[in-house]
Amino acid sequence: MKSKILITGVTSGIGRSLTIESLKRGYHVWGIARRGSILREIKKNTKKNKFDFTSTDLSQSDAWEKIIRQIKRKKFVPNIVVFNAAISEDDLKDGIDLNSTRDIFETNYFSVLDGIERLLPYVKKDTQFIGISSISALKGNAREGIGYSGSKSSLNLAFETLQQKYSKNYHFTIVAFGPVATGMNPYKKNQFLSISEKDAVSLINKAVDERKQRYEKPIFLFLFVKIVKLLPQNISNLMFSVIENLRKKLLEE
Ligand SMILES: NC(=O)c1ccc[n+]([C@@H]2O[C@H](COP(=O)([O-])OP(=O)(O)OC[C@H]3O[C@@H](n4cnc5c(N)ncnc54)[C@H](OP(=O)(O)O)[C@@H]3O)[C@@H](O)[C@H]2O)c1
User: Fold this and answer.
1) Ligand 1 test: best mutation among 7, 8, 10, 12, most atoms within 8 Å of CB?
2) How many CA atoms are closer than 13 Å to the CA of 43, on its beta-carbon side?
3) How do residues 235-249 score in pLDDT, each as one tens digit?
4) Which of 182, 203, 205, 216 is the most exposed place for a label (fewest CB within 10 A)?
């Protein structure tokens, strides 16, 4: 059976590369994003009607209703769903900007839960749900703000919980990245510690092929953060601030 894959956030970065790679693999792709012009352009460049899309803002409460209506009309039943769309903005510039924190959670977290809830009665047994997460889920970071890391750690825990609840019928997989040289990453120019978009897509495809519960890349960076977090607080704070200063310098270069 050829896979049908639904991917959110297909108009740039990892989602766009994953879409192109999935089309190469022969999958039928249903893409979601706000920018209709880019979605139409992807469709135009795709042969054999293998790409369909819904242009919608996932932070809005009716987004998934619209998506489900459109995929049902076309009898598109995904057996892989990749929740990739996310936003990252500093909601801690001048105190806590609650509106911004809420916006981040709507897109990065609540829309994922809404999508799962609405897809579960529609998809077949054995469907895999993949949540794209980040190393930011492992530690707070004043540079990044509150919402991004908070939403990604919530996503990790939600997928862990859903896997326990539905392990007999479905797969819930988290694929987490350190910095990726793409849209969301401010260190695009200086790619020290970054992985490429191609490596990120390969890891998602590995997750699709193996269907384990968790994937992380680069492994050494995740290990480093996990180990440093076990050290006494003052030592771990010092180590993280050294790394942060180094990254700041790289960004300025
Ligand atoms: N880049 C990194 O360094 C990095 C590191 C770790 C994890 N990640 C994770 O990897 C995933 C992709 O990151 P990326 O760097 O490829 O991001 P990106 O280039 O900024 O792309 C984000 C995608 O999400 C879509 N999107 C954002 N808000 C949306 C909304 N409200 N409704 C619908 N679509 C929306 C955007 O499309 P429209 O603007 O057209 O809506 C775009 O296609 C994210 O989950 C991110 O957290 C990235």
Assistant:
1) 12
2) 14
3) 999 998 888 888 777
4) 205
